[in-house]
Amino acid sequence: MAGTKTRVLILGGGFGGLYAALQFEKRRDPRLEVTVVNRENFFLFTPMLHEIAASDLDLTNIVNPVRKMLRHVNFFCGDVDKIDIQGKRVTVSHGFDRHSHDLEYDHLVLALGAVTNFFNLPGVAERALTMKSLGDAIQLRNRLIAHLEEADTECAQTARPALLTFVVAGGGFAGVETIASINDFLRDALPFYPNLKEEMLRIVVVHPGEFILPELGEKLGRYADKKLRERGVEIYAKAKVAAVRPNEIELSTGERISSSTLIWTAGVSPNPILDLVACGKERGRIKVNANLEVEGVLGLWALGDCALVPDSATGGFCPPTAQHASREGKVLAQNIMADVYGRPKRPFSFKTLGLLAAIGRRTGVARILGVNFSGFLAWFLWRGIYWSKLPRMEKKVRVAIDWALDVFFSKDFVQYLDQRALAHTQTETGAAPWNRDQISDTTKRNNAITA
Ligand SMILES: Cc1cc2nc3c(=O)[nH]c(=O)nc-3n(C[C@H](O)[C@H](O)[C@H](O)COP(=O)(O)OP(=O)(O)OC[C@H]3O[C@@H](n4cnc5c(N)ncnc54)[C@H](O)[C@@H]3O)c2cc1C
Description:
FAD/NAD(P)-binding domain; alpha/beta; single chain
């Protein structure tokens, strides 16, 4: 790296890190050398993740290659392994052999987000699916389809209840949008499976509160609850998942649900790699001041889900949302530039504009600037607002086309397979004997998942 330039290293290319990088990209300041490190080479637009799981959108339409978004900021696709605050150095590994590089910095931005928290509940970490990454959504979609295929066979009659019961833990935004969209997906696919009937399907949400979507208040929460129940979703309120065993989910109420699919959206914790950073934290999240600086550590900044950002509007802390992280990113980048040029920094201040959730069958719930919306209008607002926020015109067009096609065609339930085609050895002296172990990887993997 050039000696005279101020080196800014951004760890994480999600809403916080990427929007900070975009601000540097806009300024193209010759005095700065900015690098983003991210595990994946793409930026994931999480608000539309459930649409991938439910086949509303093509698999890659809600992700953007970071390199198409950043032309002047450097990008390093790799894993952050070590953060040395004293030595101002970060160790990153990448490549097929996972070799390491040390990246030095003058300013370090921590934007590593949060990870799923299983709370050490028996069987949950081993058996639950999660809903946080693109891979999670693809895996869930594949699982739904694999279970329909398996349950439709005559020999699976006794296994059908567990195969056709899908349980989501958590009635917050991610849980409700996931359950609503997979409910639509499964019910749309069912007519193509002659041995399966609608009454065989069980779609269940387990939620600790009295009503789902508590962030939107009781009125909208109860509306969403009613709509989902009308569409066949079972809601277990005031309950938590206590343990998961093969083909059985036990609740805190003592009830047992015969199911081999649990989708866990019931908790997150800060990225554990932050344990390596010696600075002020609260429940694992990094404490920053209103300028998004970590006090007492020169050149260290944090934002997004991994940080505890003071909220000037409420006197508390900012909620972990994309709308906050992206705006924090912009202010943080401006404050680093202010620091470099010796100008005054600007405190972060933002009031949540609105909260929206899609609850299936072209209905939604939303609270925007304090006004409640529900039904088709809320769903339309959800689509319109998130579509406008999705980065890059190319992806906007692809998503719009997918949504338009959705009006004319039923949902696509082809499996997404990533394994090599079956191969066999045949020479001039003859073929090698057929080996049953050559059955496809997919069959093996699906068997392993439900075992
Ligand atoms: C299913 C779902 C739906 C959501 N819907 C909404 C919504 O509708 N509206 C809303 O406002 N918010 C929503 N959110 C919340 C929103 O996504 C988060 O608040 C936001 O992503 C936080 O941004 P961040 O930059 O802090 O973290 P992230 O966006 O999670 O980014 C962290 C980045 O760091 C990378 N990373 C982590 N560890 C390493 C490592 N060791 N090495 C390299 N890279 C690493 C990750 O790969 C990731 O790219 C949703 C979240 C989920 C999961």
